[in-house]
Amino acid sequence: MSSKSGYLRQPIVSVLGHVDHGKTTLLDYIRGTAVAAREAGAITQHIGATEIPIDAIINICGDLLKGKKFTLPGLLFIDTPGHHAFTTLRARGGSLADLAILIIDITEGFKPQTFESIRILKQYKTPFVVAANKIDKITGWQKTKYLGRQRIENQHSRAKTIFEEKIYELIGTLYDEGFKAELYYNITDFRKTLGIIPISSKTGEGIPELLMTVVGLAQRFLEEQLHVEKGPAKGTVLEVKEETGLGTTIDTIIYSGILTSKDTIVVGTKDEPIVTTIKALLKPKPLDEIRDPRERFDKVDEVHAACGIKISSPNLENVVPGAPLRVVSGNLEEVLEEVRKQTKIEFELDEDGIIVKADTIGSLEALIKESRDKGISIRKADIGNVSKRDIIEADATQDVLNKVIFAFNVKILPEAQEELQARKVTVFKEDVIYTIMEKYDEWLTAAKEALERERREEYVHPGMIRILPEYIFRVSHPAIVGVRVLGGRIREGVTLMREDGKLVGKIKGIQSQNRAIEEAKQGEEVAISIDGVTVGRQIKGGDILYTDLPSKDAKKLREMNVLTIDEKDVLDKIYEIKRKTDKFWGI
User: Fold this and answer.
1) pTM of the full predicted structure?
2) Which of 58, 80, 130, 458 has its CB surrounded by the most CB atoms within 10 Å?
3) Three-class secondary structure of residue 109 per DSSP
4) Fold match flag (354-458 vs 463-579)
5) What is the pLDDT of residues 412-433, one digit of tens each?
6) Rounded CA gap, 153 and 194, in Å?
7) Is residue 526 packed enough to be buried (19+ CB in 10 Å), middle (13-18) or exposed (0-12)?
8) Does pLDDT of 243 surpass 90?
9) Does the active-site annotation cover 83?
10) For 299, how many CA atoms within 13 A lie in the half-sphere containing its CB?
11) DSSP assignment letter at 385
12) Are strands 426-430 and 404-408 parallel, antiparallel or unpaired?
């Protein structure tokens, strides 16, 4: 594209990583250093983003960038930390971020949100580098004036050994996740190898090298996609907020074109897109003026990509984070259709399955992808809090394993909470998708085991008893005898048979120490009452009796593989008895 028809915008850089691994500290350090190092270029604060001009970056990097020429105007850091912002910022089904920094605490390594961030980066195919943070916390670490390799070489042997072990662990985990990674100063081709830059957000060590790597990668590999037209603006909604005196506003990242205060815009909602006029474009004060809190925003007439801007307009209540924003120019129907398409999440729903709720379009996409990758069926997926209706719908499904709601970064509304008490629905409410999946896996294993136990109870189980001759309490109507359970189990209502296969009546009741019980297992001695039998005729003391299983129960119990070893032995004996008269029994 010719630069006459547009201009080169700064790349949008997102910082991802686990909580407390240093995302905010890194951004604060870069901002603070940039303000101190600036020349002519102001360090601009945008909504949800900070613009660091190239001259400030060159000053921070010092000799690292000496003699290097850049056409990039600078870097636009997304400073709403974490992967929530990353998944919210979508454009054309991909990520809006041109580059990402995955920050990892070198002393802790990969954590749940690190894995989550890696998955999201893969899903959106976003190029990234790894910032191995908190090198200052390594035992014996000394801050030095050296850069890169020399910084490591000049550490005491203990600190150097720990550093190398930790980096080796990171490289191994990244390899398991499908990436060939290496310390940045050992890399010849950044297209094939993922760069790891050791840093300390606290002391500032490695941050010049991190900025140098990010700027270098953007300049070398992204220049073409950073050319933008000077036409009507395109953007993505980052947050929907209530502001005193302004009502509902939207914080938006504009990634292409120009937005003016006179424009009519189309924005995506959960339902149909809205068409609205702009009341005000609001930009935060520059960073070095933000200390004066009397006026938080400046009203501006026009903004150019890439930037973050707060928009005040009528009818923004139903706008969803992650929705596209377009300026109306030309055919309104075409613009409406484009916004409609980009707000809609394209995926097939299943007839039966779980319900998925998330806070933004991007989060919902990520949650659906994770669920699909695990083979989980989804019958409803929506943006917003968990409502009473969601609970009722989840409970309406026949399969108990589908009475489940994934609630990512959303609330359970009070009436839904109330409904939940009366229903057998399980809600996994977390702000990390990885944690939802982990907890779901644990729950699913336990739920399947419980179901299996329930199912087992539906079948007649193999049982083998011996009538104790010294405990014949009554000979008939019903016969009451003492027995020892030699194997398996006996229950009320089960028919008994002799070793020759003849049926001898049904267990009417079981007692242990004068207390009625439902079931007796191997090793127990109990008294049982048997209907339809007389002791001395059909049965006598010392006889071995078996439970009479229906053929289909015997077959099912074998297939389910749920019997204990002694139950299997008893079942084998029952097979022998039954097959004397029916060679296909239990098949």
Assistant:
1) 0.72
2) 130
3) coil
4) no
5) 999 999 999 999 999 999 988 8
6) 22
7) buried
8) no
9) yes
10) 7
11) P
12) parallel
Which residues face 407 on adjacent strands?
357, 429
Look at residue 2 in the predicted model and tell me its pLDDT.
38
Topology of domain 463-579, per CATH?
Elongation Factor Tu (Ef-tu); domain 3 (2.40.30)
Lowest-pLDDT range of 72-86, 384-398, 408-422, 500-514? 72-86
Residue 526 backbone dihedrals phi, psi, to 5 degrees: -140, 165
Specify the CATH number of the domain 248-343: 2.40.30.10
What is the rounded CA–CA span in Å between residue 257 and residue 234?
A: 6
Find the mean pLDDT for residues 214-222: 92
Burial pattern 175-191, b for ≥16 Cβ within 10 A else e, equals: eebebebbbbbebeebe
Count Cβ atoms below 10 Å from residue 377 Cβ, excluding itself.
15
CATH of domain 12-226: 3.40.50.300
User: Can you give the pLDDT at residue 359?
Assistant: 87
Tens digits of per-residue pLDDT, 122-181? 988 899 999 999 999 999 999 998 999 999 999 999 999 999 999 999 999 999 999 999
Using N-to-C axis directions, what is the helix angle for 54-61 and 207-221, rounded to 10°? 130
Q: What's the rounded Cα separation, in Å, for the pair 355 and 359?
A: 14
CA angle 522, 525, 530 (to 5 degrees): 100
Residue whose C-alpha is closest to residue 320's, from 298, 301, 339 = 339
Residue type, 581: T
Q: Among 18, 83, 84, 461, which one carries the catalytic annotation?
A: 83
What fold is seen in the domain 354-458?
Rossmann fold (3.40.50)
Residue 326 neighbours by CB under 8 Å, 6+ apart:
232, 233, 234, 265, 266, 267, 335, 338, 339
Q: Is the dihedral of CA 365, 366, 368, 373 positive or negative?
A: positive
Which residues have C-beta within 8 Å of that of residue 337, sequence separation ≥ 6?
none
